[in-house]
Write a structure and sequence with these properties.
Length: about 525
Amino acid sequence: MNTPIEDLRAHLAPIDDLESAAAVLAWDQETFMPDGGAEARARQLSTLQSTAHERFVSDETGELLDRAAEAVGDADPLDDDASLVRVTRRDYERARRVPSSLVATLSEATSRAKQAWKKARTEDDFSVFAPHLERLVELSVEKAEAIGYDDEPYDALLEEFEPGLTTAEVADTFGTLREDLVPLVDAIADAPRAERGSSPRAAPALDDDLLRRSYPQQKQKAFGEQVLADLGYDFDRGRQDVSAHPFTTSFSVDDVRITTRYDEEYLPSALFSMIHEGGHALYEQGIDPALDRTPLGEGASLGVHESQARLWENHVARSRPFWRHYFPQLRDAFPDALGDASLDAFYRAVNRVEPSLIRVEADEVTYNLHVMLRFELERGLIDGTVSVDELPARWNAAMDDYLGVVPDTDADGVLQDVHWSMASFGYFPTYTLGTLTAAQLMETIEAEIPNLDAHLADGDFGPLLDWLRTHVHRHGRKLTAPALLERVTGEALSADPWLRYADNKFGALYRLGERA
Ligand code: ZN
């Protein structure tokens, strides 16, 4: 006789296999599949995903959960079995509340909307996308009503990506962030720019010309993959390929893949995206193998996932100690581009802050304003205070207000991101939640690993990775993001650690302390 927990695991494992097989097909679609394969691939993915979904929402899952729940009782929140029941129950109830007819309608509407969005962006014509977006908003509100919420429908949508966090909490945290961030961006924009060779008291010129020289792809690949291996990414349980948009995907804890894209005239494009995706992948490779083939064998939430990517990308790989270690090697790899460059100039170049139009190209500081703007607009779309028709004007006004730059076209404005065409309302805030979470974790890490900078300057990433493995990675989805943060840092999510980090780092880079 199997125990109820064994029965539940035996039921869930093949569902996870179906989802992982779908992920392999999706990875292939983005990397190696010839264009001609698109239609067959769409059918294959749809079959695998709907089969997995049907099995998951079946009455059998509910019965197995009931029996398993009796067997585990109220155990420790980190107990594998109790967590499996708790988290699977949450997913199950949410999935059961959305009628399958609505799932199908949404899926069709998003595939049409995505086509319309591509056309609208190419032709710079928002009106091509507008009716589709209106429909997606309607359907998403319907979905939120089906799922249920306490305060506003956006809560139900946010919960898909950030379980345990409410819209009001996000708005509150972002409000604190914005209050200090907008003046910081203004101060950076107003910081005096000195030309090379002028008085050492003047602020340094933060230009990034040296990043825009010739960087052959093969050498970028070799250098980046060496860095990834040094950080602890296990190439025996992963690989890196090329795709149009970099991403990380996991088929099991022993097969976690990343992709990148190269620009031979702009070094940061591949380098930092490799480290960013590497951060996501280190998380997935670090999940306790005992959680594999269960709903627990993933990251805690999108925000926590993003925190791991940004921690390695920004706090580690855009730090001075990191480049103290790597800059000599980088200069050796690219003698033509960097032969005349100094560590200091390179460090300043990779940390340049400049308000710009496009989110995915934004620097570490202004990025958060791009996210806040999207959060406020999509919250308004869902609660009915922002209409689709006024969206382009609202977008441009917010860009002007927050960043002081306004796009000439909707293609470079409201149409730039794919998310709304996929009805992924509630996704955007997770980018900034990740940024804030990374900074909050780093304050705890710096207190617990006092000589962290010395380790980074030696290229010794073991202590940092071990800390993350122990406190974050291995738990998978056992804890929600708020529970994880509370447990690890002793505090609820706050914008303050990131603001302290940004004030320190960019205050020094732009000599803001010398402001009158
Ligand atoms: Zn990411």
